[in-house]
Specification:
Blueprint lengths: L1 E4 L3 E7 L3 H6 L14 E6 L5 E10 L2 E7 L3 H12 L5 E5 L3 E5 L7 E2 L8 E4 L7 E2 L2 H11 L36 H10 L4 E9 L7 E4 L4 E9 L2 E7 L7 E3 L2 E5 L1
Parallel strand pairs: 1-10
Antiparallel strand pairs: 1-7, 2-5, 2-6, 3-4, 4-5, 7-9, 8-9, 11-14, 11-16, 12-13, 12-15, 13-14, 15-16
Length: 254
């Protein structure tokens, strides 16, 4: 078993008798799934653009929100704005989040995005685990095609369906209304996605954020996380059929 305590994560505790109803009207996934374990979801702008993503864990009547530390202040502010008269309390907690993968009987909540991501343990690394690093986690994400805030997921810019939230079990199309739901539903039912997240082969050197171009110089997307000769990119699918360039690297869609 590999384990890495991710310093970029932060826990927000949501408590009070209206907790689940409050979240149900805001987030992209169905809060009822907390009865089976962890839930992956996002909160969107009214225009349907990504603001923040997080994992939710049941803790008795409370819900724990596992979010990037640098997104927590803005998310707390937005949740407070939406709270109005709802009987909920929002509390920041300094609980370590340890990512565990590559073994049996892993501690914590199974990551609902992909079984290969293992579990998320609220506490320090378990005794006997092999210490992993941020680079190890990035390589695992790239291999499984999982975007991350601060890299592929860009607040006020990304659309979650272009970022594979449906494949990653981060959106429910039957749950009813939430902020940004109309735009998301329209993209699902009336639009063929022409751009989005893709795994790519990276041969050569290119930094995250490097623009990707076709061989004849047309813009094709942006390279994001790179690990071990592969990467995650945001691509125009109609321009990604052949070899592309990003800086000094050759990019090929996998």
């Amino acid at each position: 078993m590999y384990a890495w305590t991710d310093p970029s994560r932060h826990i927000i505790r949501i408590s009070g008798e209206d907790t689940r109803d409050f979240l149900q009207g805001l987030i992209t996934n169905d809060v009822k799934q907390l009865d089976q374990g962890a839930v992956y979801a996002a909160i969107l702008t009214p225009q349907g653009k990504y603001l923040a993503d997080f994992l939710l864990y049941p803790d008795g009547a409370d819900v724990l929100m596992d979010v990037r530390r640098d997104q927590a202040p803005g998310l707390l502010q937005r949740l407070t704005m939406y709270k109005l008269r709802s009987k909920v309390a929002l509390t920041a907690e300094d609980t370590p989040v340890t990512l565990c993968w590559g073994g049996d009987d892993l501690p914590g909540f199974a990551d609902p995005r992909d079984a290969g991501l293992g579990t998320r343990h609220l506490g320090p690394a378990p005794a006997g685990a092999t210490d992993a690093t941020a680079a190890d986690w990035a390589a695992l994400r790239v291999a499984l095609g999982v975007p991350e805030a601060g890299a592929e997921l860009q607040p006020n810019d990304s659309f979650i369906l272009e970022m594979d939230f449906e494949r990653l079990h981060g959106v429910d199309f039957r749950k009813g209304c939430y902020v940004g739901q109309e735009v998301t539903a329209r993209m699902k039912h009336k639009t063929e996605l022409r751009k989005g997240l893709a795994r790519v082969r990276v041969e050569g050197t290119a930094a995250p954020g490097t623009p990707i171009e076709t061989e004849d110089g047309r813009p094709a997307g942006t390279l994001h996380t790179v690990a071990g000769g592969e990467g995650l990119a945001y691509l125009r699918f109609d321009r990604a059929a052949g070899p592309m360039r990003a800086g000094e690297a050759t990019i090929t869609r996998l």
